[in-house]
Amino acid sequence: KPRKPKWLEYLALGSLLALLVTDVLGLPAPLVASCAAIAAIAHGARLALWQPWHTLRRPILWILHAAYAWIVVHLVLRTATYWDAGIVNIANHALTVGAIGGLTLGMMTRTARGHTGRPLAAGLAETTSYLLVQSAAVIRVLVPLCIPSLYLFAIKFSGVLWVAAFMLF
């Protein structure tokens, strides 16, 4: 049973709104980084309270938690852009490849199965597509951070995995 303290729900939403305002207004980097750090902590705590480890045997659920975790990674990397502005692109790909890609596949599975009266359980093809999109995110984000000389390789290989995930789905 996930726990959802109201104060944490408000902090998670409020910190994202504050980050949006700092971005739109072009406020100083320390303020942006502070908002991103608070949002990362709030969303990380939120995810932990959902106890995602209990969903590991149900791919149709763990993909949603794994994708949400990429939002936290994005916010951590947004915080780190205060010290290295060059990683903003990597932060954006944590959000787009990992979070949006994973959430899209997870919700498409749930919607397609639910609207056709099939059980809400991912089959082998769906699970494989989840693993491919998560692998694409890991490669797109971590390889450039750890081995910058493989940046172009990471983009290409990640792109192939991402496309394969959606083609398989």
Structural summary, described in words:
78% of the residues lie in helices and 0% in strands. The chain has 6 helices and no strands. The chain has helices at 6-25, 29-49, 59-80, 88-115, 124-146, 151-168. The longest helix has 28 residues, at 88-115.
What about the largest sheet?
A: none
Distance between the termini: 30 Å
Structural class: mainly alpha
Beta content: under 5%
Overall shape: it is: globular
The total count of strands amounts to: 0
Q: What ranges have pLDDT less than 50 throughout 5 or more consecutive residues? A: none
Order of SSEs, N→C? HHHHHH
Radius of gyration: 17 Å
Helix content: over 70%
Overall average residue pLDDT: 96
Quick overview of this protein structure:
The chain is built from six helices and no strands. The protein is mainly alpha-helical and 169 residues long.
Element layout with pairings:
Blueprint: H1 6-25, H2 29-49, H3 59-80, H4 88-115, H5 124-146, H6 151-168
Helix pairs in contact: 1-2, 2-3, 3-4, 3-5, 4-5, 5-6
Please name the defining characteristics of this protein:
0% strand, 169 residues, mainly alpha
